Amino acid sequence: MAKRSAAEPILEVNALVKKFPVYGSFGKLFGAKAYVNAVREASFRLYEGETYGLVGESGSGKSTTGRAVLGLTPPSSGEVLYRGQDLVKLSKRELRKFRNEIQFVFQDPLSSLNPRKRIGDILEEPLIIHKIGDRQKRQEQVFRILEVVGLQPEHYFRYPHEFSGGQRQRIGLARALIVNPKIMICDEPVSALDVSIQSQILNMLRELQTELGLTMLFITHDMSVVRYISDRIGIMYLGTIVEEALTDDLFEAPRHPYTKALLSAVPDYTRSRLKERIILKGEIPSPLSPPTGCVFHTRCPLATDRCRVEAPAVREVREDHRVACHYA
Fold first, then answer.
1. Which of 111, 171, 188, 310 has the most neighbouring CB atoms within 10 Å?
2. Same structural domain for residues 64 and 212?
3. 284 and 194 in one domain?
4. Rounded CA separation 240/41 (Å)
């Protein structure tokens, strides 16, 4: 159950849009000839102490949404309200003040770690940037955070290539945690890891969330992972959040046809017979030319003429359960 300890959300995303320009043979000389609609009017809220899972297929825009929230990819329009402050309207200098409160954990830790620096220097760098402590205190904090994420003191002196994938992901988590953030945005942090290592990282995240009072936006394509880690889940398709609900409600009573198709693909080992698999026809439309009306109507088994011309409004079908579908 979502732990809403405050009346107001700690982070609120309203009508977030991100478009990437596509240029012709002459580059930027004659301007963009088209736009990739990566995120389209995405809206959701994070409440203090909860984990919000953002799920979708590859290319659905979930990672772009996470980057846009933090400003790593500046949004084209929309609002990102952190404790009432719109981060979209801030300059780079003003936004830097919030960097230590909202941290990002990347999918591939090796590509985000400087191969020429020792782990101790990598972890100390955020403290230097945010002017936290003197050299001795920073080193003490690095050794402490290594212990928190399950690494040894001698790892301080090693380089990124000397670690396994699971250990590198722990280093990525340590780098995010060392500045004591309020919110962590985790972009598929376990997708490249073995199942046994995945469980270790997920268990560690849940323990750290309880101990440190973290709020997390957890981005993934794995329904089993998001069910374990999340309090609430948002289902994203072609840059649009089509359904949002508490985790148990979503898995027990999905309302959107796309959500039902996703859940039908999850293996269920607790039943004696296989559940019915829903096979979607066709391919995901190109974000260069998204369909009119409902974004899912080209693959939806329930689609009608209304779906082709009229985009469904997000409506609440029960408490804390919202869906964008005419026939949900």
1. 171
2. yes
3. yes
4. 7
Residue 270: which of 227, 314, 302 has the closest Cα?
A: 227
The answer to whether residues 51 and 230 touch, using CB atoms and an 8 Å cutoff, is: yes
Residue 264: the pLDDT is 87
Chain CA centroid to CA 114, Å: 23
Q: How many residues does the chain have?
A: 328
- DSSP letter for each residue of 200-268: HHHHHHHHHHHHHT-EEEEEES-HHHHHHH-SEEEEEETTEEEEEEEHHHHHHS--SHHHHHHHHTS--
8-42, pLDDT tens digit by residue?
Answer: 899 999 999 999 999 988 888 888 888 999 999 99
- Look at residue 108 and tell me if it is in a domain: no
Do the Cβ atoms of 3 and 47 come closer than 8 Å?
A: yes
Same domain, 261 and 316: yes
Range of the domain at 172: 113-180
pTM of the model: 0.90
